[in-house]
Amino acid sequence: MERTLSIIKPDAVERNFVGQIISRFEAQGLRPVAMRMMHLSQKEAEGFYAVHSERPFFKDLVSFMTRSPVVVMVLEGEGAVARNREIMGATNPENAAEGTIRKDFAKNIEENSVHGSDSPENAAIEIAYFFRSTEIC
Ligand code: IDP
């Protein structure tokens, strides 16, 4: 069993896709074991995406992630990190495979509906960024 951090981003929450997105995770072998809706502060979004701070899209990304609430979750399952990335699809929805969340819900490369940790190491860091161990069921 492995755990990964998932975020349903503002574009998806705004369009009422929370339930449909969680259903896809559940239907494909991932179980939410922690969950919170929250409106990220600028500081929280900048800290979360610090690795991208030198990228040209950083300012826009922080602005997007803070404009309305998100749902942060810990998903658990076999190979959860890679499984979640498969279910999400490619960063740019134009390149995302059929049946993936980003293919079906994302608006564009920035407003792409979901975040998922890209390695078990980053998953541990990202989970700890949002959840205390006592909040994970
Ligand atoms: P990932 O979310 O698929 O792991 P990353 O390359 O880690 O992709 O980028 C983090 C987030 O930054 C993306 O999900 C997307 O919201 C945003 N992003 C990535 N590349 C671009 C870009 O070229 N323009 C605008 N936003 C981008």
From TrEMBL:
The regions listed as transmembrane in this protein's record are none
Cited CDD domains:
NDPk_I
| One GO CC term on file | cytoplasm
Nucleoside diphosphate kinase-like domain location, by residue? 1-137
**Top-level taxon of origin:** Bacteria
Cofactors named for this entry: Mg(2+)
Record Pfam families:
NDK
- The answer to keyword Acyltransferase applying to this record is no
Q: What is its main location?
A: cytoplasm
Q: Name one GO biological process term.
A: UTP biosynthetic process
Q: Which reaction does it catalyse?
A: a ribonucleoside 5'-diphosphate + ATP = a ribonucleoside 5'-triphosphate + ADP; a 2'-deoxyribonucleoside 5'-diphosphate + ATP = a 2'-deoxyribonucleoside 5'-triphosphate + ADP
Question: E.C. number, please?
Answer: 2.7.4.6
> Does the entry feature the keyword Cell division, yes or no?
no
Annotated residues for binding of ATP: 9, 57, 85, 91, 102, 112
Compartments where found = Cytoplasm
Q: Give the annotated active site.
A: 115 (pros-phosphohistidine intermediate)
Q: Subunit structure, briefly?
A: Homotetramer.
User: Which HAMAP family does the record cross-reference, listed alphabetically?
Assistant: NDP_kinase
- What role does it play? Major role in the synthesis of nucleoside triphosphates other than ATP. The ATP gamma phosphate is transferred to the NDP beta phosphate via a ping-pong mechanism, using a phosphorylated active-site intermediate.
Name-wise, this protein is Nucleoside diphosphate kinase
Provenance organism: Microvenator marinus
